[in-house]
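Meet our chain:
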Amino acid sequence: MTWLIFLGLFVFSGATYWFTRGKAAARARTAERRAHSLPGQQAAYVAIWALIPAFLLLFALVTVGGRIETALLSTDLPPSVQALQPDRQELFIQDAHALAEGRGTSAATYEGPLKVALDAKVAEARQYDDLVTWGGVALAALIAVIGSLLAYRRLSPDFRARNRAEGWVAALLILCSAIALLTTIGIIASLLFESLRFFQVVNPVDFLTGLHWSPQTAMRADQAGSAGAFGAVPLFVGTLLIMTISMVVAGPIGLYSAIYLSEYAGPNLRAWAKPMLEILAGIPTVVFGVFAALTVGPAFAWFFKSIGALLVGGPLDDFGQYLSQVQPNMALAAGVVMGIMLIPFISSLSDDILNAVPQALRDGSYAMGATKSETVKKVVLPAALPGVAGAFILAISRAIGETMIVLLALGSGGGTSLTFNPLDAVSTVTVQIVSLLTGDLEFDRPTTMAAFGLGLTLFVVTLGLNIVALQIVKAYREQYD
């Protein structure tokens, strides 16, 4: 029913808009002098006053109406309910709410005086619900009508309706910006608070320089190694390894495709080739992860095992034995698929940067007798190098923060040993965050709080990379604007 009330309010606001617009247009045709604001701007002013105050009231009722009803129901409890424990009293109020709304509850468990008290509270809850709902609707309707009438009466040729309406829009934009800013501050604050709790238990130096990661050993105090091992260097190395593989794949392909589309492809070819390339950007990362786990990983494992079978028994028998034991959850598979995912990201940014290079530089190179390839290599790429470098850094930060591809390709456990071998299983910072925050662990344990330490480290690294990239791109734009 709530959405019907809001829909009715929007319909009323739209009706006031069209009515006021028609009246204002009629007055404008017969007026001796031109009004300050257009009919549509005057109508928007009236519609805003018909909508916003009533909408805020209804939103407040939807947000806190249930709490108001709970507070009213919690007063004057019968003695039989007061004798219950506080948690049982809360459950009693919740059951009364649910029965009043027609939802199934455990009402059959109440007997005797408690059943009588429950029936009384159910009737009381229905009264409060009707009072809040219909009283709120009536008050919102009254506010909408009064607001629209007062706004309509203020309209005149000299009234600055446009400025007033734009003021509401500016206030809305400021509100949205404030919400985004406060959300960011809240995320950072919660991350810092939990990370500080973690670093009170684990030395930050040991966390950043330790070579062994085994947080799950901190599950029981009587368990061997109960202090846990929180050296995050293996995770940093695994993240760096997969990021390097992905950039080796995505960097050349993305840049070369951008050069071709920007400098060599004709308009017709570019019109369909660029959208086809950017289709990859619309594929969810979970699909890439499934592709890595079910196709790329097994295909790589089969390929290396085939090579290992050929080398077994020969001079490279040890290497052949190693290749024959390669598993699909290798870092190489995750890195290659992540690189495929990053190709449109690098290609699109690099293409825009190459197109931003002034045509006069190309024309000057051609006038000196340079070929197209020489112009691209000697003129266009050096001019676009700061912007391309910024695009690569942004892609690196994207690769560092990627979760689903690595999680599905390597598994939630992965390998936590320190290795630079792309054929081994590794683990990354994001995979460990997911692994540590899933399950029934309590949040006051170092095992769980380690996720916040990893998250803070990842946040600082990606923030630094984004700042560097933005500074590089800013310098590039200042040079060629």
